[in-house]
Amino acid sequence: MGESDQQLKSDALLEQMKTHLTTDAGKEIIDKVGFVYQLHIAQRKIEFNEVIYTINLKKGELKKTGS
Fold it and tell me: How far apart (Å, rounded) are the C-alpha atoms in residues 14 and 16?
């Protein structure tokens, strides 16, 4: 895999989470938790090209920014 087309293993997991948040069970989690989480994930331990996921459990949104 090249640097420009890197696919993180966590992408699939977070896509499943995004889908789950739209279900009835996901809506229950949103009602119970009500926090916003931000995950910084990189291909290697020290890397500047990281992907940032913002998991908003107040609104039920998951956004991906970065590479």
Answer: 5
Locate the domains of the chain by residue range: 9-66
Cβ-in-10-Å burial (0-12, 13-18, 19+) of 53 comes to buried
Our measurement of the distance from residue 26's CA atom to the centroid of its chain's CA atoms, rounded to an integer in Å, reads 14
Distance CA 17, CA 13 (A): 6
Q: Which of 22, 25, 50, 21 is nearest to 38 (CA)?
A: 50
pLDDT in tens, 30-64: 999 999 999 998 887 776 788 999 999 999 999 99
